[in-house]
Amino acid sequence: MAHQERLAEGLAALGLEVDNGARGQLLVYLSELQRWARRINLTAIRDLDVGIEKHLLDSLTLLPMLRGDERLLDIGSGAGLPGIPLKIALSGLDLVSVDAAEKKVLFQRHVLRTLGLEARTEHSRVEVLAEDETCAASFDLVTARAFSSLELLVELAAPMLKKGGRILAMKGPDGEDEWQRSHLNEQGWKCLSVKRLTLPFSRSQRTILVLALMA
């Protein structure tokens, strides 16, 4: 199956709408990721079809939760996931991407230039970024993919959110259980919604938790 067809099939299976121009850019992004990964450790996935699902489609599962004009912080973004695929699909998104690994941030900057997209990329830790007055308490949304723990994500994200902002926590099948085991509710956090989904080809299970701090 051609890569374009596989991407289209996966998007349809997930009920996601992405225009043809953005689909082409998504595949360019993935191709560049694979090319750079031959020289530096950006991803363990070497098969393009697997990357379509595990990188592109997985990232795009957040699309139904976005208007497209929010300010979004992607913490520990690695090679730009999920932020860059979301920016490709929603060009009006105000994306800030932060990662502590310089080589990964350099890749992000390269691929953004290649695609003609504007986003802020920071080689830093989010704790340091929280001291930047242009970033602290300024984000509508904070997200992270494959992050270590829900409680740590909330701890790092909280100083970055504006009033009424939300955390989109991308977790595996036990995401809701992790929320129930946490003490976040006692700290004033509320889980606004839980979205469970299945990736279309591998049938891998995912959970997206939407969290907000109640006043």
Q: Strand tally, please?
A: 7
User: What fraction of the residues are assigned to beta strands by DSSP?
Assistant: 15-25%
CA-to-CA gap between the ends?
A: 51 Å
Largest sheet geometry: 7 strands, mixed
Mean pLDDT: 95
Q: What kind of assembly state do the chains in view correspond to?
A: single chain
Label the overall shape. Answer: globular
> Could you say which structural class the secondary elements and strand pairing correspond to?
alpha/beta
Low-confidence stretches: none
Q: What is the CA-based Rg, rounded? A: 16 Å
- H-E string: HHHEHEHEHEHEHEE
**Residues in helix, %:** 25-40%
Strand order of the largest sheet: 3-2-1-4-5-7-6
Count the helices. How many? 8
Short recap of the structure:
This protein is α/β, with parallel strands linked by helices and 215 residues long. Helix content is 39%, strand content 24%. Helix 5 links the parallel strand 2 and strand 3.
What does this structure look like?
The protein is of the alpha/beta class and 215 residues long. The chain has eight helices and seven strands; from the N terminus they run αααβαβαβαβαβαββ. The chain has a seven-stranded mixed sheet with strand order 3-2-1-4-5-7-6, with helices on both faces. Helix 4 links the parallel strand 1 (71-75) and strand 2 (94-99). Helix 1 (3-14) runs parallel beside helix 3. The protein starts with a helix and ends with a strand. The model has no long low-confidence stretch (mean pLDDT 95).
Features:
single chain, alpha/beta, 7-stranded mixed beta sheet, 8 helices, 7 strands, 24% strand, globular
